[in-house]
From TrEMBL:
This is Putative exodeoxyribonuclease 8 PDDEXK-like domain-containing protein. InterPro entries: PDDEXK-like_dom_sf (IPR011604), Put_RecE_PDDEXK-like_dom (IPR024432). Keywords: Hydrolase. It comes from the Bacteria. GO terms for molecular function: hydrolase activity. It comes from Roseburia intestinalis. Gene3D superfamilies: 3.90.320.10. Residues 19-251 form the Putative exodeoxyribonuclease 8 PDDEXK-like domain.
Length: 267
């Protein structure tokens, strides 16, 4: 299957290729645990998430669309962003402010000045992978644009301690996969950067270099998990439910009462 910008997110492409977002649907991140049954339902089309229901995702997609040069099309495809008088809702006015903050910083725009939305594929760990790079500087670096609540916010988990937003949302995994796919295609192992902009009252910006040791660690994790995902996609094993995601809530069938002590699970 030849991937293009038009079919990159299609069901057919997702069935044939693994992507970072699909990987995280199955395996999860610290911030959003995975759910195997949800991931398969999303893959086969029996569960469709309405992006309009998630303002946070929409704002991020709005900023992405601007930097890839498709904002007019994005606006046309998402009338939910507009008030009845035709003006943008407050969240997207804020997105424009975030964009303006990025564009008045020379270093940020230097990193975002690479080739936009570059698609690459590669065979890796027994699976076919696809990636789409926000800003690709051939022979120099890979840059991914991220919107976030706060660049400096810390996330705490009892088993891991304090994490930054890259670890919380699996961006080390993304960097590791992107770096390896580019290396397979070009023979060059390029540094990976996050160009981040926050959604705070005063938008914060930062270009973040990801340490190679963290990318190597994340790639080892991916290699370990790919075989399980492939077995799930092929139907060789039955998927497990997380019982916490929207899909599991929607499809839950009660079979017994539970004890009050079961409400918060194991701590």
């Amino acid at each position: 299957m030849l991937l293009t910008s038009e079919n990159y997110y299609s069901r057919e492409a997702n069935e044939e290729y693994l992507s970072v977002s699909q990987y995280k649907d199955f395996m999860g991140t610290y911030g959003k645990p995975g759910c195997e049954e949800y991931a398969l339902a999303k893959l086969n089309g029996t569960w469709v998430e309405a992006m309009e229901d998630s303002t946070a995702l929409m704002v991020g997609s709005y900023v992405d669309a601007h930097f890839e040069g498709t904002l007019d099309l994005f606006k046309a495809q998402h009338p939910c962003m507009f008030k009845k008088d035709g003006n943008l809702k407050a969240e997207y006015v804020k997105a424009n402010e975030m964009i303006n903050r990025c564009e008045r910083d020379a270093l940020f725009m230097q990193y975002m000045s690479g080739k936009k939305q570059v698609i690459m594929t590669a065979d890796m760990f027994g699976a076919k992978w696809k990636i789409k790079i926000d800003s690709y500087h051939p022979g120099k670096c890979i840059v991914d644009l991220k919107t976030c609540q706060s660049i400096t916010k810390e996330f705490y988990h009892p088993d891991t301690g304090h994490l930054n937003f890259l670890a919380e949302w699996g961006y080390y995994i993304q960097g590791a996969v992107y770096q390896k796919v580019v290396e397979i295609n070009t023979g060059k192992k390029l540094p990976f950067f996050i160009a981040a902009v926050s959604k705070e009252k005063e938008a914060d910006i930062q270009v973040i270099a990801v340490e190679q040791s963290l990318l190597d660690e994340a790639l080892t994790e991916v290699e370990h998990n790919v075989s399980t995902i492939l077995m799930l996609k092929s139907g060789a094993v039955e998927p497990m439910r997380c019982e916490h995601c929207d899909y599991c809530k929607h499809t839950k069938v009660l079979d017994r009462p539970i004890w009050s002590s079961e409400l918060i699970g194991e701590v």
